[in-house]
Amino acid sequence: MSDAPLHLVPVRSRQAKEFVRTWHRHHPPPAGQIFAVGAADEAGVLRAVAIVGRPVARHLDDGVTLEVTRTASDGTRNANSLLYGASWRAAKALGYRRLVTYTQDGESGASLRGAGWRIIASRPPRAGWHSPSRPRTDHGNDRVARLLWEAPWPSSLLHGNGPTTLTLPILPTPPELSCTPST
Asked: Which residue of 36, 78, 122, 175 could cross-link 11, Cys pair, CB 3.0 to 4.6 Å?
């Protein structure tokens, strides 16, 4: 564990998943991802990772929403808050309009609050996904209540129940940057 200043670093999928296997308390790495980001100390030692992918819940998988499916840290202070903020900035830069994540009952959510996220729903414990017609193994998060969190939108972009579409003026392309051949 370290309290050294942190900076963001790119993390490949394999490295992020290995970090989660090593440091996450109760979940294995997620199956897929859109991107991952890491936090490293001044010596370049990876201290935390965030993995962002498509939402697990089908009703949230609308093409404009992503989910932070896993974060893991070696306990370095503020690492997860740094990663939640960076994940939201990256998701917005890629054109996504919403980023969500879950915490389990008993987790404080301090990193999410530190990054400005807010609770938008409470999910009751579920009995599990196993059924006689489709046997499934317990993933360790069944029978646990969860909170659904959402990344903040700047107040200037809020309209009604969600973000608005920004309309930017279309400027003429200067002749030297034109993609069409000149005659």
From this structure: 36
Q: Taking every pair of C-alpha atoms in the chain, what is the biggest distance, in angstroms?
A: 71
Whether the Cβ atoms of residue 39 and residue 82 lie closer than 8 Å to each other: yes
How is residue 50 written in tokens?
A: 């965030």
Mean pLDDT of 85-101: 97
pLDDT at residue 175 greater than cutoff 90: no
- SS3 string, 50-88, reads EEEECCCCHHHCCCCEEEEEEEEECCCCCHHHHHHHHHH
How far is Cα 174 from Cα 163, in angstroms, rounded to an integer?
32
Report the Cα 69 to chain-centroid distance in Å.
6
Residue 50 pLDDT exceeds 90 = yes
Looking at residue 36, its amino acid is A
- E strands, the chain, are 7-10, 35-40, 46-53, 65-73, 98-104, 118-123, 146-150, 158-159, 162-163
CA 33, 84, 95, 170 torsion-angle sign: negative
Burial class (CB in 10 A: 0-12, 13-18, 19+), 96: middle
Task: State how beta strands 158-159 and 65-73 pair.
Answer: unpaired
pLDDT on residue 110 = 94
